[in-house]
Write a structure and sequence with these properties.
Elements (H helix, E strand, L loop, with lengths): L1 H14 L7 E5 L11 E7 L17 E7 L2 E7 L10 H4 L1 H9 L3 E10 L9 E9 L27 H14 L3 E8 L8 H9 L4 E3 L3 H9 L4 E10 L10 H24 L3
Parallel strand pairs: 1-4, 1-5, 5-9, 6-7, 7-8
Antiparallel strand pairs: 2-3, 3-4, 5-8, 6-9
């Protein structure tokens, strides 16, 4: 694994003249619009990068973008990888590990999710303050790679409290209503049944989706602070559940992403 990461990093550095990002950003389904805010210097397709997986899901462009967001150097994944695509968890989080070796200090993540909190409406933004991992696998299973982190990493603060507090201040100043809550991660790819939505609410969840948590586990294993937001694209509350398609999710996410983009842009701009 380490040898592969080193090969990938060496290739990327050669293609980007050694560009040094301080933040990594992973954009979820229908949330690629943040790229319009970036002063792009280099763009690499996933297909061209050694050992990189390839996005197979509509709404995920499959590009690694290097440039400046709010005058700060960033690397952006326009499209992520999911366990349901058939990738191992190690492959799902491979880009996070690569970004660590490229030099990132903080990881920002976004996702489209179903709201199971009755207070949620389609188009709302939820800042993650914790998560519940219901995936059938974990990216840290197997022999631990000491160069990446400890065998048993602490997860008492999966999402950085200071970034959460600052994001709430930024949202208030921008006039955006945001929620804060717990994200439940499942493997997918099918959307949840009414009973499953109810179960996720009963165990303490506020939103449910098919990503983010494996990447956060890998990032925290490497001591990278994380900040994540969910855009609520459908509602999993009893009496409000309707049939949902992937196209519906993309459309709802695209309408709400302006809020997420503004929050990310402001937080990145404050990085040292």
């Amino acid at each position: 694994m380490l040898a592969k990461i080193e090969e990938t990093v060496a290739y990327i550095n050669a293609q980007t003249d050694g560009f040094k990002p301080i933040a990594g950003i992973i954009l979820g389904t229908g949330l690629g619009g943040l790229v319009k805010e970036i002063d792009i210097k280099f763009t690499l397709s996933y297909e061209s990068i050694p050992h990189f997986p390839v996005s197979t899901v509509e709404g995920h462009s499959g590009k690694l973008i290097f440039g400046y967001l709010n005058e700060k150097p960033v690397v952006v994944m326009q499209g992520r990888f999911h366990f349901y695509e058939g990738y191992s968890m190690q492959m799902v989080v491979y880009p996070v590990r690569v970004m660590k070796f490229l030099g990132i200090k903080t990881l920002f993540l976004s996702n489209a999710s179903g709201g199971v909190n009755p207070a949620h409406e389609i188009g709302d933004v939820m800042i993650l303050n914790d998560h519940i991992n219901l995936n059938p696998d974990n990216p840290l299973i197997g022999k631990n790679i000491a160069e990446l982190g400890p065998r048993f990493p602490d997860m008492s603060e999966p999402y950085d409290r200071k970034l959460i507090a600052r994001a709430k201040e930024i949202s208030t100043n921008l006039g955006y209503k945001v929620h804060e809550g717990v994200y439940v991660s499942v493997s997918g790819p099918c959307f949840e049944t009414p009973a499953e939505y109810k179960y996720m609410r009963n165990i303490g969840g506020d939103a449910v989706g098919m990503s983010t948590v494996p990447e956060v586990i890998a990032a925290r294993h490497m001591s990278i602070p994380c900040f994540a937001v969910s855009v609520i694209t459908d509602i999993g509350v009893e009496g409000r559940i309707v049939e949902v398609t992937h196209e519906d999710v993309i459309a709802a996410a695209s309408k709400a992403e302006v809020k997420m983009t503004a929050i990310f842009k402001a937080l990145v701009g404050e990085m040292a």
